[in-house]
Amino acid sequence: MAIEPFLKKRGVEQSDVGKESYLQSQEDRAKLDGLYECILCACCSTSCPSYWWNQDKYLGPAVLMQAYRWIIDSRDDYRKERLQALEGAYKVFKCHTILNCTKVCPKGLNPALAIAEIKKMLATS
Prior knowledge:
GO terms for molecular function: 2 iron, 2 sulfur cluster binding; 3 iron, 4 sulfur cluster binding; 4 iron, 4 sulfur cluster binding; metal ion binding; succinate dehydrogenase (quinone) activity. By secondary structure, the protein is an all-alpha fold. Helix content is 40%, strand content 0%. It has one domain (26-124): Alpha-helical ferredoxin (Fumarate Reductase Iron-sulfur Protein, Chain B, domain 2, Orthogonal Bundle), CATH 1.10.1060.10. The chain has seven helices and no strands. Helix 4 (61-71) packs across helix 7.
């Protein structure tokens, strides 16, 4: 399963990708604060018991926080598909909210909150 860490637009030919800027309001941009600052050090994932025992199936906090970053980006047209890709026992629901990930983040980010937000979105979609 890939997170696809890039904007996806409907109705844009592959040859036209990158030719146009997609603007975003300051409010929508502010929603990404605390997500894009991740330096991908994986301290959160290596501190996660669910990840220790299920590395081959569970994506872990670092990847799930990045998934959330792309799910909530107002410029992306594939929110529904991104959420569907995270359904299942070994995707987002393997997180047991132990919060080790948030405690060890050297940037002070909150992967557990991002994962909880994905869970809420899946529950209400």
